[in-house]
Amino acid sequence: MAKRVLFVDDDKYMRTVAELLLKREGYEVRTAASAEEALEILKREIPDVIVSDVVMPGMNGYELCRRVREDPRMAEVPFIFLSAKSELEDRTQGLDIGADDYIAKPFQPQELLAKLRVTFKRLEIYRRQKEELGLSEGKGVPSVLVVDDEPFWVKILTRQLERAGFRVEAASDGREALKVLERFRPDLILSDVLMPHMDGMEFRRRLLEDPRFSDIPFVFLTARSGEEDALEGLALGADDYISKAISPQVVAQKVRAVWRRIE
């Protein structure tokens, strides 16, 4: 069955080119000239992915993405921004409200096609992961406590972990995480190292001293890439050490691999 793409752009030429390109690649395509028109289409049918411009008359792409994410029917539909706004702040804003990717104009047709291929491949991976984790059989959803002081990173990582089939709770540092653990026992803890108040190493030491939490699988997530740092974390009994240099999607895959290994 052909994958369905909703392409939203106020530029008629862009809509025409995108429709021809995507149909040639075997996609089923719907186009909209505004966010308002896109919402009307979404009332009738849910696409497999939404590609939207940011700057449009009336409602902009950011607000469209917010509306999509607020609708339970579309909360997990991949959303890709396509825009001439390429500054880091603009990209951050788009990802922060729930977008999955961002393509800057002008772009090459092959870039759009590659982004769509990767998006659909990722969805298929997540679907298989959920089946392997037993979610399709009604088993309990595995849970992760993410401990990190970067709100933007936490939001993006949380979204990827939830798509991979995990329930996620978050804390901004080790001290807050200890409070969270009093009411919520996760199946795995994913913690940054460099944090205010209580860093990841001290947080790990506190867990080892408490028999209630010492056996919870623990993974360090950090921008520190030195071998000594990794060895220090592993010496504290961590199950793995993941670099922040990789994408949140890859981090989610690694967490899933650790979970399968220790399950």
Question: Could you please describe the fold and organization of this structure?
Answer:
By secondary structure, this protein is α/β, with parallel strands linked by helices. The protein folds into two domains: 4-131, Rossmann fold (3-Layer(aba) Sandwich), CATH 3.40.50.2300; 134-262, Rossmann fold (3-Layer(aba) Sandwich). It has helices at residues 12-24, 35-44, 61-70, 88-96, 109-132, 151-163, 174-181, 200-209, 227-235, 248-262, and strands at residues 4-8, 28-32, 49-52, 79-83, 101-104, 143-147, 167-171, 188-191, 218-222, 240-243. The protein has a five-stranded parallel sheet, with helices on both faces. Strands 7-6-8-9-10 form a five-stranded parallel sheet, sandwiched between helices. The protein is elongated, with a radius of gyration of 20 Å. The two termini are 35 Å apart. Mean pLDDT is 85; it is low at 135-139.
Beta-strand proportion: 15-25%
Number of strands: 10
* Intertermini distance: 35 Å
Q: Note poorly predicted spans.
A: 135-139
When the domains are counted, the total is 2
* Helix vs. strand class: alpha/beta
CATH superfamily of the largest domain: Response regulator
Radius of gyration: 20 Å
The topology string of helices and strands comes to EHEHEHEHEHEHEHEHEHEH
CATH architecture of the largest domain: 3-Layer(aba) Sandwich
Number of helices: 10
How is the topology of this model organized?
Blueprint: E1 4-8, H1 12-24, E2 28-32, H2 35-44, E3 49-52, H3 61-70, E4 79-83, H4 88-96, E5 101-104, H5 109-132, E6 143-147, H6 151-163, E7 167-171, H7 174-181, E8 188-191, H8 200-209, E9 218-222, H9 227-235, E10 240-243, H10 248-262
Parallel strand pairs: 1-2, 1-3, 3-4, 4-5, 6-7, 6-8, 8-9, 9-10
Helix pairs in contact: 2-3, 6-10, 7-8
